[in-house]
């Protein structure tokens, strides 16, 4: 439903876009939702881009109020702020209509350097969009941008897209996606196409939606064509060039707010521990979001060894690999941090235990993992944590005659000559 | 009265084959080792303690001095830990530069290992060949970072500088050259009867023992555990490249040798692909001048040439870490040495120690 | 001339002449060692794709070794406190003297030889065995664990490899019917023994590398294991003596190989207008080059494998070669 008069040379691009829009429209119907699509043609004006982003943001606010919509204003070009203004106006009008009808997206699209005619056409398009929206209580404006050389504009868009996504979550309603074609990154484009495809699927599930922003570079029909194709075979191509942002985006979608992908594993581990080691064996357990979502278990000093033993030898869990062991002085207490890995579950887990700072004593893990030998010596050496039943606890780095434990926060260097 | 007695021999801390200041006290009966006790700490500089009073960017040069043969990876692990906690998005170009730099570092590190290992075994020439190629890598990395070993190149959010002009082309040229040389290495050494006799069946451990002793890297993969964090827990952009994780089943010194040699090839593959896909763009994300990590803790681990290098940060939200800890692969890998040496011939001591591939800067922290 | 002198009545003049000649030979040998070391370093540099010495004495580094020797001369002479002092001082002499003594019987050309004695080959083998004592003494007297292990290794190795070395030569003696080195050279006027006794040559060559303590058999000094083996405590000119004896042995062994297997100074047919001395020099250089080549190429063999190889492979092969040679010789005589 977007119409473009794009420049004389981009009919192909326009066609592709129109198609995409049509598809989006269908989905929107089914889900009573919508995808605005912003596309911009920016010749050289970052200012224009900024203005647009602002407009989009405003539109989004309105949309919230009305349970759904995003007009996107887009602007063009080369020297016509006037055109931009006209568009904005058109967008505003469209928005009003949308309000009345509980849903719609006008779309302003503009083109280039000297075509006010185009602007007029767009206004028309917006109007039409409004009508359709009424019928379907939903719609997809499409903004498209043409970025000749402005990465800044692209960045702005990405930001806008991100914001839009957040709103979408809140309202269970939509994901615009900014896509950029940097003149030379087809791979990127493919990846993005995939992301878009994924996003769309998810959107369906969640009664949500993804506007798609697409950008065209000033003179590359070929690119446009390639993009259309890319969208079609998105998966195959995307495999080759996976885009990190794409991955991230989808992740965000996957894990709205609290639920971490590792939550189920944490639950499994915790329930196994509680049924075998005993209720209350764990002081607490949580997903450490800062640390790549690693399930974290905090043990009691009394249950520390038995939990470790259980993790090590349980058939299902089988944490056979000790990746790291160290201590930390938190001033209020000492803490041992053990990072374990299970090849069977393909999952890491952090096991922590808090110790009394004045007499830090804890069973050694060497009987379970021989690899804990030196790390425990190191913790003994630098922090003064005593591991009992350790086969050979010694000051491994500093030597037996060293005074004090350097990594303790209250450590005072001892120097005979001072 | 004729009698025999055990002799206590100090190998190191100054010994040509301990690769630094590593000391091994061995009890020998003739040339048979009865007991071996490693003594470490001669190079302990207290990096972790120092870091508690430094800002994150200031810590990066200290990481260079841990595993000084592959300092890029150390740079990365610290930045990666900070970035993970802050949730910084790294610009594409920076990611590619990082990966290329790290993989070049991996090749260089394995070359040093190969050369010195052969030198330990008594062959002088491979050392010079390996260092010739390594010198080219070092030159490339010097062009990139300005330093030969202690690069200090990575920053939280990206890298310090963009690559100089033509740098990528030079890297691209290096890859086929290195492949050619690698074939020569195999011709010279891999099939050599004397060499094979010295390393085959020496220093064997099983898969279970390797896991039990927390070995990582080629030391783990030589027992058949297909475990490479680049593949199994992809970080940075490693999931974009096709490469293999070489493994062997035997668990002896020779299998470790094979694993490392094949890893060079895989690294070259990664470099090749990265060079092809090398994008334009900024190299440093927008991060605050003074980096403050959110309150909390994180442990990240990545694959260094020597194994699994990890970085633990506990932060109070200040500009210095509250506690910084590196999981140093050499430190963990070295633990199995006394067990491997027991009952071995003196001559195998060097073969076994060399095959573990330790860097003392890393062992001692 | 020397023969005449040997047959003349002993006198102070004769002693003086011999002494002068010996000193002369010593300097010739030292000259060789100087340039032998240089050429070894140059060849190694070439094979390892670097330049080698190129600073002192022009771009070829011609005076490099001279400078090195000079440095060794003025270096501090250290003797460890707990060393067995007399033995410590004596050891380098014991190691070096035999190396020089063996040169006496070696015929360099038909004209250039000091003592043409009947059992020249046996003399060489017997005298060279003495060096082992010097090395063991050095290892013991240093009172250092590394040097002790190195010394013991050296003793074990040299004794083990002396046997296949001698055994491999029995075939030649069988063919020649003489232990005299001149006779052996004369017997090769038509065909070199390397072609008649290929197995013996291989055994001899391997064993000789082991006798020289060179890579891949350099266990006594195995730098990466024993730091420097038996001479770890020696410095300055005492150390230089060990080095010197090693290179003189290399010189002697290359000469012996040339004499025994490559036809000595005999020329290739139709090329006999080239002087004998040059022929000898060429063959000698080839052997020397191969010795260096081996050093550059191979890693070090392990002690137990070394013993195994010596006793279980080389010795049986050498014995089989004797048997085979005797058999073939008898068969030829029969018909």
UniProtKB/TrEMBL annotation, chain A:
InterPro entries referenced in this protein's UniProt entry, alphabetically: NADH_quin_OxRdtase_su_C/D-like, NADH_UbQ_OxRdtase_30kDa_su
Domain NADH:ubiquinone oxidoreductase 30kDa subunit: 299-412
Pfam families, per database record: Complex1_30kDa
GO molecular function: NADH dehydrogenase (quinone) (non-electrogenic) activity; NADH dehydrogenase (ubiquinone) activity
Bias type Low complexity, positions: 10-26, 45-60, 80-95
EC numbers, comma separated: 1.6.5.9
Region (Disordered) location: 1-115, 169-194
Biased composition (Basic and acidic residues): 27-44, 62-79, 97-114, 169-191
Keywords from the UniProt entry: Oxidoreductase
Statement: the UniProt record of this protein carries the keyword Oxidoreductase: yes
Family the entry assigns: Belongs to the complex I 30 kDa subunit family.
Record's protein name: NADH-quinone oxidoreductase subunit C
Organism of provenance: Peribacillus simplex
Lineage, highest ranks first: Bacteria, Bacillati, Bacillota, Bacilli, Bacillales
Automatic annotation (TrEMBL), chain B:
Its EC number(s): 7.1.1.-
Any Gene Ontology CC annotation: plasma membrane
UniProt KW keywords: Cell membrane, Membrane, NAD, Oxidoreductase, Quinone, Translocase, Transport
Compartments it resides in: Cell membrane
Membrane topology: Peripheral membrane protein
Keyword check for Ligase: no
GO molecular function annotations of the record: NAD binding; NADH dehydrogenase (quinone) (non-electrogenic) activity; quinone binding
Protein name per UniProt: NADH-quinone oxidoreductase subunit D
Automatic annotation (TrEMBL), chain C:
PROSITE patterns assigned to the protein according to its UniProt record, in alphabetical order: COMPLEX1_ND1_2
One Gene Ontology term from the biological process aspect of the record: aerobic respiration
Keywords in alphabetical order: Cell membrane, Membrane, NAD, Oxidoreductase, Quinone, Translocase, Transmembrane, Transmembrane helix, Ubiquinone
Cell compartments where the protein resides: Cell membrane; Membrane
Segments crossing the lipid bilayer: 12-38, 87-109, 121-141, 161-179, 191-210, 247-265, 277-297, 309-328
Membrane topology: Multi-pass membrane protein
GO terms assigned for molecular function: NADH dehydrogenase activity; oxidoreductase activity, acting on NAD(P)H, quinone or similar compound as acceptor; quinone binding
Classification via Pfam families: NADHdh (PF00146)
GO cellular component terms, semicolon-separated: plasma membrane
Catalytic activity: a quinone + NADH + 5 H(+)(in) = a quinol + NAD(+) + 4 H(+)(out)
EC identifiers of the protein: 7.1.1.-
Class of this enzyme: translocase
Entry-linked InterPro entries: NADH_UbQ_OxRdtase_su1/FPO, NADH_UbQ_OxRdtase_su1_CS
Membership in a protein family: Belongs to the complex I subunit 1 family.
Record note on quaternary structure: NDH-1 is composed of 14 different subunits. Subunits NuoA, H, J, K, L, M, N constitute the membrane sector of the complex.
Physiological role: NDH-1 shuttles electrons from NADH, via FMN and iron-sulfur (Fe-S) centers, to quinones in the respiratory chain. The immediate electron acceptor for the enzyme in this species is believed to be ubiquinone. Couples the redox reaction to proton translocation (for every two electrons transferred, four hydrogen ions are translocated across the cytoplasmic membrane), and thus conserves the redox energy in a proton gradient. This subunit may bind ubiquinone.
Protein name: NADH-quinone oxidoreductase subunit H
């Amino acid at each position: 439903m977007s119409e473009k008069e794009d420049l004389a040379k981009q009919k192909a691009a326009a066609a592709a876009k129109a198609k995409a829009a049509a598809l989006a429209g269908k989905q929107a119907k089914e889900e009573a939702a919508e995808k605005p699509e912003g596309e911009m043609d920016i010749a050289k004006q970052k200012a224009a881009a900024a203005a647009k982003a602002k407009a989009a943001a405003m539109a989004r606010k309105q949309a919230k109020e009305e349970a759904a919509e995003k007009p996107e204003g887009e602007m063009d070009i080369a020297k016509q702020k006037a055109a931009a203004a006209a568009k904005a106006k058109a967008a505003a009008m469209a928005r009003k209509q949308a309000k009345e009808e509980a849903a719609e997206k006008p779309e302003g699209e503009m083109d280039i350097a000297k075509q006010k005619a185009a602007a007029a056409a767009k206004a028309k398009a917006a109007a039409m969009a409004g009508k359709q929206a009424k019928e379907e209580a939903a719609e997809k404006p499409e903004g498209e941008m043409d970025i000749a050389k402005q990465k800044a504009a692209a960045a702005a868009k990405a930001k806008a897209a991100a914001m839009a996504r957040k709103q979408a979550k809140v309202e269970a309603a939509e994901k615009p996606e900014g896509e950029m074609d940097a003149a030379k990154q087809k791979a990127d484009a493919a990846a993005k196409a995939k992301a878009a495809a994924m996003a769309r699927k998810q959107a369906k599930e969640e009664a949500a939606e993804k506007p798609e922003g697409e950008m065209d570079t000033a003179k590359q029909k070929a690119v446009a064509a390639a993009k259309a194709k890319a969208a079609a075979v998105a998966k195959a191509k995307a495999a080759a060039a996976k885009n990190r942002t794409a991955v991230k985006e989808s992740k965000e979608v996957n894990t709205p707010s609290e639920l971490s992908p590792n939550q189920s594993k944490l639950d499994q581990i915790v329930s196994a521990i509680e049924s075998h080691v005993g209720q209350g064996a764990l002081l607490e357990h949580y997903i450490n979001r800062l640390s790549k979502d690693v399930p974290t278990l905090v043990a009691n000093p009394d249950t520390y060894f038995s939990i470790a033993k259980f993790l090590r030898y349980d058939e299902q869990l089988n944490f056979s690999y000790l990746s790291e062991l160290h201590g930390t002085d938190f001033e209020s207490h000492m803490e041992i941090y053990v990072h374990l890995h299970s090849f069977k579950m393909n999952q890491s887990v952090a096991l922590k235990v808090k110790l009394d700072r004045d007499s830090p004593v804890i069973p050694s893990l060497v009987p379970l993992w021989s690899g804990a030998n030196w790390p425990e010596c190191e913790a003994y050496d630098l922090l003064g944590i005593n591991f009992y039943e350790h086969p050979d606890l010694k000051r491994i780095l500093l030597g037996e005659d060293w005074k004090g434990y350097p990594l303790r926060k209250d450590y005072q260097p001892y120097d005979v000559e001072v | 009265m004729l009698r025999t007695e055990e002799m206590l021999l100090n190998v190191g801390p100054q010994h040509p084959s301990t690769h630094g200041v590593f000391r091994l006290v061995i009890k020998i009966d003739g040339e048979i080792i009865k007991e071996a006790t490693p003594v470490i700490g001669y190079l302990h500089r207290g990096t972790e303690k120092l870091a508690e009073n430094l800002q994150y960017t200031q810590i990066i040069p200290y990481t260079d001095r841990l595993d000084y043969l592959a300092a890029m990876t150390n740079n990365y692990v610290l930045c990666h830990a900070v970035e993970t906690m802050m949730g910084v998005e790294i610009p594409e170009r920076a990611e590619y530069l990082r990966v290329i730099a790290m993989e070049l570092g991996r090749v260089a590190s394995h070359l040093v290992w190969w050369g010195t290992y052969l030198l330990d075994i008594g062959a002088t020439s491979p050392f010079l060949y390996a260092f010739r190629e390594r010198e080219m890598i070092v030159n490339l990395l010097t062009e990139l970072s300005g330093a030969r070993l202690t690069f200090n190149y990575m920053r939280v959010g990206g890298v310090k500088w963009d690559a100089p002009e033509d740098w990528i082309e030079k890297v691209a040229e290096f890859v086929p050259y290195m492949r050619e040389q690698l074939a020569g290495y195999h011709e010279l050494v891999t099939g050599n009867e004397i060499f094979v006799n010295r390393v085959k069946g020496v220093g064997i451990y099983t898969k279970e023992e390797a896991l039990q002793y927390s070995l990582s890297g080629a030391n783990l993969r030589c027992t058949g555990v297909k475990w490479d964090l680049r593949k199994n827990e992809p970080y940075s952009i490693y999931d974009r490249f096709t490469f293999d994780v070489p493994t062997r089943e035997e668990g002896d010194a020779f299998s470790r040798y094979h694993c490392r040699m094949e890893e060079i090839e895989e690294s070259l593959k990664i470099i090749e692909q990265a060079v092809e896909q090398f994008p334009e763009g900024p190299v440093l994300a927008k991060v605050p001048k003074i980096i403050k990590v959110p309150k909390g803790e994180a442990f990240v681990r990545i694959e260094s040439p020597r194994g699994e290098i990890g970085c633990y940060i506990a932060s109070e939200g200040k500009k210095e870490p509250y506690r910084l800890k590196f999981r140093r692969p050499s430190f963990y890998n070295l633990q199995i040495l006394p067990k491997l040496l027991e009952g071995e011939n003196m001559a195998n001591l060097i073969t076994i120690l060399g095959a573990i591939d330790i860097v003392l800067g890393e062992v001692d922290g | 001339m020397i023969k005449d002198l040997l047959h003349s009545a002993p006198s102070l003049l004769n002693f003086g002449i011999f002494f002068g000649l010996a000193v002369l030979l010593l300097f010739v040998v030292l000259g060789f060692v100087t340039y032998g070391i240089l050429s070894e370093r140059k060849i190694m540099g070439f094979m390892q794709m670097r330049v080698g010495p190129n600073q002192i004495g022009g771009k070829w580094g011609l005076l490099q070794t001279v400078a090195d020797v000079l440095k060794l001369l003025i270096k501090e002479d250290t003797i460890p406190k707990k060393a067995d002092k007399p033995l410590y001082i004596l050891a380098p002499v014991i190691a070096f003297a035999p190396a020089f003594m063996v040169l006496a019987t070696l015929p360099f050309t038909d004209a250039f030889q000091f003592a043409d004695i009947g059992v020249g080959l046996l003399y060489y083998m017997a005298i060279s065995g003495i060096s082992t004592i010097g090395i063991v003494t050095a290892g013991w007297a240093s009172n250092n664990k590394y040097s002790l292990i190195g010394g013991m290794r050296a003793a074990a190795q040299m004794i083990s490899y002396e046997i296949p070395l001698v055994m491999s030569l029995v075939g030649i003696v069988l063919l020649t019917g003489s232990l005299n080195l001149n006779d052996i050279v004369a017997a090769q006027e038509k065909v070199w023994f390397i072609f008649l006794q290929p197995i013996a040559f291989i055994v001899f060559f391997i064993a000789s590398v082991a006798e020289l303590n060179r890579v891949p058999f350099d266990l006594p000094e195995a730098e990466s294991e024993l730091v420097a083996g038996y001479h770890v405590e020696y410095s300055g000119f005492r150390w230089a003596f060990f080095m010197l004896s090693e290179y003189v042995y290399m010189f002697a062994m290359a000469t012996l190989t040339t004499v025994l297997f490559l036809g000595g100074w005999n020329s290739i047919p139709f090329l006999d207008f080239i002087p004998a001395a040059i022929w000898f020099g060429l063959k000698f250089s080839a052997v020397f080059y191969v010795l260096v080549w081996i050093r550059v190429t191979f890693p070090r063999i392990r002690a137990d494998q070394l013993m195994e190889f010596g006793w279980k492979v080389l010795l049986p092969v050498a014995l089989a070669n004797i048997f085979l040679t005797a058999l073939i010789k008898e068969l030829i005589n029969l018909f």
